Amino acid sequence: MSKDTQSGLSRRHLFTGTTALVAATSLSACGGDEEAPLIIRPDGVPMSNFGKESTAEEVTAGLDLSGKTAVITGCNSGLGYETMRVLASRGAHVFGVARSMEKATDACNSVVGTTTPFAGDLEQFETMAVCADAIGATGAPIDMLILNAGVMALPELQQVNGIERHFVINHLGHFILANRLMEQVKSASQGRFVTVGSQGYMWAPDTGIQFDNLDGAWGEYVPNTAYGHSKLANGLFSLELARRLGESTATANVIHPGVINTNLGRHYPSYIRIFANLFSWALPFFKTVEAGAATETYAATAPGLSEISGFYFEDCNPVVAGQNMENAAMAERLWTVSEGLTQPYLVSSASVVDTDISAPRTWAEPMPSGAVPFRK
Ligand SMILES: NC(=O)c1ccc[n+]([C@@H]2O[C@H](COP(=O)([O-])OP(=O)(O)OC[C@H]3O[C@@H](n4cnc5c(N)ncnc54)[C@H](OP(=O)(O)O)[C@@H]3O)[C@@H](O)[C@H]2O)c1
Question: What does the mean pLDDT of the chain come to?
Answer without folding.
Answer: 85
